[in-house]
Amino acid sequence: MFFDRPESGELAVLVHLELSAIDSPEDPREFEELALSAGADPVSFIFGQRAAPDPKTFVGRGKLEEIREAVKEQDAALVIFDHILSPSQERNIERELKCRVLDRTGLILDIFAQRARTHEGKLQVELAQLRHMATRLVRGWTHLERQKGGIGLRGPGETQLETDRRLLRARIDSIEKRLGKVRRQREQGRRARSRAELATVSLVGYTNAGKSTLFNQLTNADVYVRDQLFATLDPTMRRVELPNVGAMVLADTVGFVSHLPHKLVEAFRATLEEAASATLLLHVVDAAADDRVHLMAEVQTVLEEIDAAELPQLIVYNKIDLLVDFEPRIDRNEQGVPLAVWLSAATGAGCELLVEAIAERLGEQMVRGQLLVKPHQSRLRAQLFEINAVQSETYRDNGDCELQILLPRSDFQRLLAPYMSGSEAPEWLAEE
User: Fold this and answer.
1) What whole-number distance in Å separates Cα of residue 18 and Cα of residue 173?
2) Which positions make up the binding site?
3) Cα dihedral 91, 97, 99, 105 sign
4) What is the C-alpha separation between 268 and 112, in angstroms, rounded?
5) Residues 212, 252: contact at Cβ < 8 Å?
6) pLDDT beyond 50 at 6
7) Which GO molecular-function terms appear in the entry (predicted)?
8) How confident is the model over 330-354, as a mean pLDDT?
């Protein structure tokens, strides 16, 4: 739109370097999955090793020549690097190879552009793309001189590059304002759920860990599910009833990936805030993945970026159907609190254990028991009914009322605490 680049195609040469200067290198298998998810047809995979990237072309002259030969031999129209390239490196490599070059950030952005379905999701992807594009506007322009003077040629005195930057900035500002409105609307929804004392449970985890499949199992929903990276971009929320706890809101969120580009974290902040404001996080893990410990650490890194790392978490080890002779179970700490659940969202095995564990974790914030309310305390009885805290009531012959109550601890402190001292205190018949 704003600059000229070589045309792209589906035949792609993939390039992955092991850099000794990087502590946590990318996984070549994940890189190939990303390329396939974007619709590329990898025809050659080139590996290499360097102590550090070449500042001009990222790879050395010999490796660049190897890539050129692969492009020519396979008639490829696209070269994808499993690394983040600077704008000048991308430009220099394209000039050398005479074909389109894409780095890891651009690849993920392309996948996001294909997956976004809602208006909000498309806005977030466009914002990330524009921010990425803003650093690459110099590519391809050969007419950057000032506009000429004379009749019919006088202009605002801008170069084409300056004009493009101004248009780009205006579009970014427009999208940011619209996403700001979305963020405010989401915040209103969160405040409404807070007033209704509805707990929010958010599914988080590495991409393709099975979050949407699990969401469908727990809610009987029909969320889009595919065995591919970033199948879900747009958040989906459903109300779920839990035994002995009541209603909660379950939210499905975008999956994370190793070294998720910061531009995407910023663009999807409105969506990720659903996780940051959750009462409980369900951290879904692919139990069959060999590097699941590393993937869990990557998810934790993104949670830190969105200020959600300190929220209560329940680990959900999914895909146990891919393990040999493994039965669903709940792992608990010494106090009996559920820490992890092992299940298979695909088969449904163990999902009832997850519901049980969620109810226990959310139940820690609930007060339940049997309360004796005197006739002159009818106002308290009415307040308890008003917030749907009464599960059952029984009247005695003298007019006293026995109430079986279940309510959030915050409501308990607000309504009952003033009555719990002195002669006006309701009597606890049984507290669970």
Assistant:
1) 38
2) 205-212, 230-234, 252-255, 318-321
3) negative
4) 11
5) yes
6) no
7) GTP binding; GTPase activity; guanosine tetraphosphate binding; metal ion binding; ribosome binding
8) 92
Which residues line the annotated binding site for Mg(2+)? 212, 232
Q: Which residues is 314 bridged to in the sheet?
A: 282
- Polymer length in residues for the chain: 432
pLDDT in tens, 414-430: 777 676 665 666 777 76
The pLDDT of residue 83 is 86
What 3-state DSSP class applies to 39? coil
Instruction: Name the CA dihedral angle for 122, 128, 131, 137, rounded to a multiple of 10 degrees.
Output: -70
348 is written with which tokens?
Answer: 């449904």
Q: Going by C-beta distance under 8 Å and a sequence separation of 6 or more, which residues neighbour residue 401? A: 372, 373, 375, 381, 393, 394, 395
Alpha carbon 260 to its chain centroid, in Å, reads 10
What residues form the annotated binding site for GTP? 205-212, 230-234, 252-255, 318-321
Distances (CA, A) of 239 to 138, 180, 252, 361, 403: 49, 25, 12, 17, 26
Q: Is the distance from CB of 257 to CB of 109 less than 8 angstroms?
A: no
pLDDT in tens, 128-172: 778 777 766 654 444 444 444 444 444 554 566 677 777 778 888
In this prediction, residues 344-350 reach a mean pLDDT of: 92
